Amino acid sequence: MSWKDTYQTWLDRKDLEPSLKRQLAAMKDEKEIEDAFYGPLSFGTAGMRGLMGPGINRMNVYTVRQATEGLAQFMDTLGDEIKQRGVAISYDSRHNSRLFAHDAARVLGAHNIKVYIYDNLRPTPELSFAVRYQHTYAGIMITASHNPKEYNGYKIYGEDGGQMPPKESDLMTSYIRKIDDIFDIKLADEQAMLNSGLETIMGEDVDAAYLENAKKVTINHELAKKYGKEMKFVFTPLCGTGRMLGERALRQAGFTNYEVEPFEGQPNGDFPGLEHPNPEFPEAFVRSEKLGKQVNADILIATDPDADRLGCAIRQPDGEYLLLTGNQIASIMLHYILEAHKQAGTLPANAAAVKSIVSTEFATKIAADYGVKMINVLTGFKWIADQIHQYETKHNHTFMFGFEESFGYLIKPFVRDKDAIQTLTLLAEVAAYYRSRNMTLYDGLQELFQKYGYFQEKTIANTYAGVEGPAKIKNLMKKFREEAPTHFAGQQVVVTEDFSNNTKTLADGTVEELGIPESNVLRYVLADGTWIAIRPSGTEPKLKYYIGTSADTLVGAKQKLADFEKALQEFAEA
Ligand SMILES: O=P([O-])(O)O[C@H]1O[C@H](COP(=O)(O)O)[C@@H](O)[C@H](O)[C@H]1O
Ligand SMILES: [Mg+2]
């Protein structure tokens, strides 16, 4: 069916959900209509994500029901035991998240599949936790994470509590694609589901169980006791889900000297004043910085709307706040975890940490210093969860920490996705650790730079929206592959890794295998150790460039980063 035909079938539906009907009637721009109807939403790095509105390439009740119907039909083939184990569901503060979550519950109910759903919004990591806690077969999280307010999304989890890896999500997609009439998906009555016990509401019971597990994050209880009250934080959950669990976790860990940014402490799907409610961006700290200066806070901490990402700004000697990168936050935390365990004599001999291939080598160097193995995986926290699963089955490593440059970290594996709630308490402990040494987090970072080298990284994400977007991104990837650069800013490319065909090509032409699942990623290693990676985002219409470099001085490293960025842009635009 052409996009025009699909559009017509939507126009013809008399019973279309009223708000979608109004929006459809108001759509006049042909490009916009084509974009909404040209093809179905795909499953990317973190499930399905897109603009809300009418159309098959949009998040709305019909596409949510369709995705859930695919999951339900797949679970039908697995038998009653799996269906009784059921599916856990959570949702964030976005518009329609609650509605989509309950619609998903009703679709599952129509297939006689058990549902566990939260009584109110809850963070993504608590959904991952619920899958494991309730032993469900799958999980659904309704969120578009840190995307602008017009977006929503659908993350799907497997029974280990990790987001579904591509093999399973491709299988799911094949079931979803087989559904021809998205307007004819059966919905059960939720009251009847509740009465019969097919649906269970989760709330304080699961929160309490999560918080009990969260106690394991603390390594040195003395630090919070001695220094917890001396340090001042500002915490902003950016109008999302992070506040309730975040505050409880912080308090139980002994950190009570904090303020919650009052406006952003309230869940609000409009995210007023936050075009991107993303702790990666300075705009996320505008309100908390103001409050921070008033109350003289040492640290500002922001969690994204589904509370899986965390960003932080630290007070510098001049009184201004410095926004740390995800790579820096991760490196500081990894160093603390390893150092604290070493001091306590509890660092396991088979300790391992996991990071994505586009994350900093600063952490690799720190891990090596403690004799800890660093394992690299593809982008997507599901790959970190997959490693943890492997360690458990093979008993070969003890998981110490996992992270991605995109502000995602996991400390204890009772959750199998990035977890900003755990991170909140650990970061507070790290700050207390430096306080115990009469230092700030800022001083701590400088100390690590001096010891391991001045590492600097940058992620550049260029947007290619609309119908032509995917082709533009594809052409740029093709250009890098076909006109393979030999140098960037005067440095020779000594290794070219193409993850799409599992090859690692050395300067002398020797080809080796990468041994990582295939993915559309290119990565270059230069003669001076700098690395550059390029990949299309799986969550937004963007092409992402990542650069990581290091030098003996901060100024030197920043200069190198700027030179490589310029060379990369010049090559892409030539
Ligand atoms: O958006 P979130 O916080 O759910 O995070 C999601 O997207 C990030 C960026 O992915 P991409 O570069 O493909 O856009 C991934 O690193 C992360 O694993 C995934 O859960
Ligand atoms: Mg998020």
Automatic annotation (TrEMBL):
<dbReference type="Pfam" id="PF02878">
    <property type="entry name" value="PGM_PMM_I"/>
</dbReference>
<dbReference type="GO" id="GO:0004614">
    <property type="term" value="F:phosphoglucomutase activity"/>
</dbReference>
<dbReference type="InterPro" id="IPR005844">
    <property type="entry name" value="A-D-PHexomutase_a/b/a-I"/>
</dbReference>
<keyword id="KW-0479">Metal-binding</keyword>
<dbReference type="Pfam" id="PF02880">
    <property type="entry name" value="PGM_PMM_III"/>
</dbReference>
<feature type="domain" description="Alpha-D-phosphohexomutase alpha/beta/alpha">
    <location>
        <begin position="42"/>
        <end position="180"/>
    </location>
</feature>
<comment type="pathway">
    <text>Glycolipid metabolism; diglucosyl-diacylglycerol biosynthesis.</text>
</comment>
<comment type="similarity">
    <text>Belongs to the phosphohexose mutase family.</text>
</comment>
<feature type="domain" description="Alpha-D-phosphohexomutase C-terminal">
    <location>
        <begin position="512"/>
        <end position="549"/>
    </location>
</feature>
<dbReference type="InterPro" id="IPR016066">
    <property type="entry name" value="A-D-PHexomutase_CS"/>
</dbReference>
<dbReference type="Pfam" id="PF00408">
    <property type="entry name" value="PGM_PMM_IV"/>
</dbReference>
<dbReference type="InterPro" id="IPR005843">
    <property type="entry name" value="A-D-PHexomutase_C"/>
</dbReference>
<keyword id="KW-0460">Magnesium</keyword>
<dbReference type="InterPro" id="IPR005841">
    <property type="entry name" value="Alpha-D-phosphohexomutase_SF"/>
</dbReference>
<dbReference type="Pfam" id="PF02879">
    <property type="entry name" value="PGM_PMM_II"/>
</dbReference>
<keyword id="KW-0119">Carbohydrate metabolism</keyword>
<dbReference type="GO" id="GO:0008973">
    <property type="term" value="F:phosphopentomutase activity"/>
</dbReference>
<feature type="domain" description="Alpha-D-phosphohexomutase alpha/beta/alpha">
    <location>
        <begin position="209"/>
        <end position="313"/>
    </location>
</feature>
<comment type="pathway">
    <text>Lipid metabolism.</text>
</comment>
<keyword id="KW-0413">Isomerase</keyword>
<dbReference type="GO" id="GO:0006006">
    <property type="term" value="P:glucose metabolic process"/>
</dbReference>
<keyword id="KW-0313">Glucose metabolism</keyword>
<protein>
    <recommendedName>
        <fullName>Phosphoglucomutase</fullName>
        <ecNumber>5.4.2.2</ecNumber>
    </recommendedName>
</protein>
<feature type="domain" description="Alpha-D-phosphohexomutase alpha/beta/alpha">
    <location>
        <begin position="326"/>
        <end position="452"/>
    </location>
</feature>
<dbReference type="InterPro" id="IPR005846">
    <property type="entry name" value="A-D-PHexomutase_a/b/a-III"/>
</dbReference>
<keyword id="KW-0597">Phosphoprotein</keyword>
<dbReference type="InterPro" id="IPR036900">
    <property type="entry name" value="A-D-PHexomutase_C_sf"/>
</dbReference>
<dbReference type="InterPro" id="IPR005845">
    <property type="entry name" value="A-D-PHexomutase_a/b/a-II"/>
</dbReference>
<dbReference type="GO" id="GO:0006166">
    <property type="term" value="P:purine ribonucleoside salvage"/>
</dbReference>
<dbReference type="GO" id="GO:0000287">
    <property type="term" value="F:magnesium ion binding"/>
</dbReference>
<dbReference type="InterPro" id="IPR016055">
    <property type="entry name" value="A-D-PHexomutase_a/b/a-I/II/III"/>
</dbReference>
